[in-house]
Amino acid sequence: MLKKVSWLGDSLDKLKEFPDEIKQNLGYELHRLQTGERPLDSKPMKSINQGVYELRDRDKSSWYRVIYYVKIKDSIYVLHSFEKKSNKTPQKDIALAQSRLKELKKELGIQ
């Protein structure tokens, strides 16, 4: 059974703006997550919260990230999708993902 993917805020719209090859690669990684497999390029985002990870890809000009939360059974919550020009994740993107996670937890009634 595939896990459900839920897109928070404008995360899906932002992903749709990525170059086609990047969208295809990140879509494949999300599909791996849905089927219970580990993604090929993901890392924990402990600066946001436990259970939050980022999918990563890049091309010649930018890095592309999809931040997601997986601590809820049978669901993947995409908190934020964005493009960045440097190796460091901007604080505004971390803050946005934290805010969306806080709102999600409040909505679901979890700590």
Total strands: 5
What do the pLDDT scores average to? 94
Q: Could you say which overall geometry the principal axes of the C-alpha atoms support?
A: globular
- The residue ranges in which pLDDT falls below 50 over 5 or more consecutive positions are none
Structural class: alpha+beta
What is the spatial order of strands in the main beta sheet? Answer: 1-5-4-3-2
Largest sheet: 5 strands, mixed
Number of DSSP helices?
3
- Report the β-strand fraction as a percent range: 25-35%
Briefly, what is this?
It is built from 3 helices and 5 strands. The protein is an alpha+beta fold and 111 residues long.
Write up this protein.
This protein is of the alpha+beta class and 111 residues long. The chain has 3 helices and 5 strands. Strands 1-5-4-3-2 form a 5-stranded mixed beta sheet, with helices on both faces. The longest helix is centred in the last third of the chain and has 18 residues, at 91-108. It is globular, with a radius of gyration of 13 Å.
Give descriptors for this structure.
111 residues, globular
Summarize the helices and strands and which ones pair or pack.
Elements: E1 4-7, H1 11-16, H2 20-34, E2 42-44, E3 52-58, E4 63-69, E5 75-84, H3 91-108
Parallel strand pairs: 1-5
Antiparallel strand pairs: 2-3, 3-4, 4-5
